[in-house]
């Protein structure tokens, strides 16, 4: 989803939340359980609005930048589980192989 569509979606939802808040404040003038229900709905709308604001404030990375970073990482980081790409791994440098050194435990 592009930044433009995220902003327009956020703006549309924010506008809907403001309209809901206005209608809920009008409804809250009625007596009894309706007022409590309206306050509950208003609180939920405000919480949803806050979550949307936090989501909009979250830092974004373009897909092209993220994929370039992932490709660069895969090319520079040796993966011992893919010997067909990186070649055979010596026993000394294989972190997944059996350890030849004895255990460093002491029994007390």
Shape: elongated
Catalogue the unreliable spans.
none
- As a whole number of angstroms, the C-alpha radius of gyration is 28 Å
Question: How far apart lie the N and C ends?
Answer: 61 Å
The major beta sheet can be summarized as:
none
Mean pLDDT: 77
Tell me the fraction of residues in β-strands, as a range.
under 5%
GO molecular function: G-protein beta-subunit binding
Subcellular location: Membrane
Membrane topology: Peripheral membrane protein
Family: Belongs to the G protein gamma family.
3D architecture notes:
- By secondary structure, the protein is mostly helical.
- It has a domain at 3-57.
- Helix content is 63%, strand content 0%.
- The chain has helices at residues 3-27, 33-57, 63-76, 83-86.
- The protein starts with a helix and ends in a 22-residue tail after the last helix.
- 1% of the residues are buried.
Task: Give the tags.
membrane, 108 residues, Ste18_fungal, transducer, GGL_sf, G-protein beta-subunit binding, mainly alpha
Summarize the structure.
The protein is mainly alpha-helical.
Describe the secondary structure blueprint for this structure.
Elements: H1 3-27, H2 33-57, H3 63-76, H4 83-86
Helix pairs in contact: 1-2
């Amino acid at each position: 989803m592009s930044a433009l569509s995220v902003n327009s979606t956020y703006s549309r939802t924010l506008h809907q939340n403001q309209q809901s808040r206005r209608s809920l404040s009008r409804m809250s003038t009625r007596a009894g359980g309706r007022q409590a229900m309206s306050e509950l709905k208003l609180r939920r709308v405000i919480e949803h609005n806050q979550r949307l604001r936090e989501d909009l404030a979250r830092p974004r990375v373009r897909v092209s930048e993220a994929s370039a970073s992932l490709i660069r990482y895969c090319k520079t980081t040796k993966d011992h589980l893919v010997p067909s790409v990186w070649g055979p791994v010596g026993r000394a440098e294989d972190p997944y192989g059996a350890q030849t050194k004895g255990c460093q435990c002491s029994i007390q």
